[in-house]
Automatic annotation (TrEMBL):
Protein name: Secreted protein
Signal peptide location: 1-16
Keyword set, alphabetical order: Signal
Organism of origin: Stachybotrys elegans
Signal found in the keyword field: yes
C-alpha cells in the first residue's frame, strides 16, 4: 500500500494540491486567505506566530485541486508549527474539501495508506506563497515579511494595501 500511494503521487504530479487558509469565513467562501501552492504531504502550511496574532486565526481550510486518484487525510491544526490536530477528514476521489471545525493555525495532509510522520503528521513547515483578498486581487508573499499579511488578517480589502506592495500583485488569477 505504501508503494502504491507513493507511486500514485508521483504519477499525478506531487505539485497538485493547493491549501487555502481562510480568515473570517468558516465555509471556505470568498474570504481573505493565504495559499500554499503545491503543498507536499506531511508538511505544515502555516504563518508565523507574529502574523497569527490571536494564535489560531483561520476559520476554515480548503483543499483544492486534489487529484481524483488520491486518498488522503486532510488535517487542520492549531498551535505553533501545526502542533495539535484540530480537525481531520478523509478525502477519496473528491477534488476539494472544506475543513470547518476551526479555529486553525495551519493545515497539512497525508496519504491514507501511509503512517503519519511524527505525532501530528508534520515533518516540516512552509509559509504560504499567495495572499488573496475577498474582493479578488492576489499578491505574491514569497519574499515578504511584513504588513501585507496584517492588512488581510485584520479584515482589510485590496484597496487598503499600501502602494509599496504593487510590485507583488499577481496580474493573472491563479
Ligand atoms: C513569487 O515570487 C517568487 C520570488 O520572489 C517567485 O520565485 C515566484 O515564482 C513568484 N510566484 C508567483 C506565483 O508569481
Amino acid at each position: 500500500m505504501r508503494i502504491a500511494a507513493t507511486f500514485l503521487a508521483l504519477v499525478a504530479g506531487v505539485a497538485a494540491l493547493d491549501v487555502w487558509l481562510n480568515w473570517f469565513d468558516n465555509k471556505c467562501r470568498d474570504a481573505n486567505s493565504v495559499r500554499c501552492k503545491s503543498l507536499a504531504p506531511n508538511v505544515c502550511c502555516t504563518v508565523s506566530r507574529a502574523h497569527r496574532r490571536r494564535g489560531n486565526p483561520f476559520s476554515s481550510i480548503e483543499f483544492r485541486d486534489v487529484p481524483r486518484a488520491w486518498k488522503i487525510e486532510a488535517r487542520g491544526y492549531r498551535g505553533d508549527d501545526c502542533r495539535m490536530r484540530q480537525d481531520t477528514r478523509a478525502m477519496r476521489g473528491s477534488l476539494k474539501l472544506c475543513l470547518d471545525h476551526g479555529a486553525f493555525s495551519g493545515a497539512g495532509y497525508g496519504f491514507l495508506a501511509e503512517r503519519a510522520v511524527g505525532a501530528e503528521g508534520c515533518s516540516s513547515s512552509v509559509r504560504p506563497s499567495i495572499l488573496s483578498f475577498s474582493d479578488g486581487p492576489q499578491y505574491n508573499i514569497t519574499d515578504l515579511d511584513d504588513d501585507l499579511l496584517d492588512v488581510a488578517a485584520l479584515g482589510g480589502r485590496s484597496m487598503d494595501v499600501p502602494q509599496k506592495f504593487d510590485a507583488n500583485r499577481i496580474d493573472e488569477a491563479l
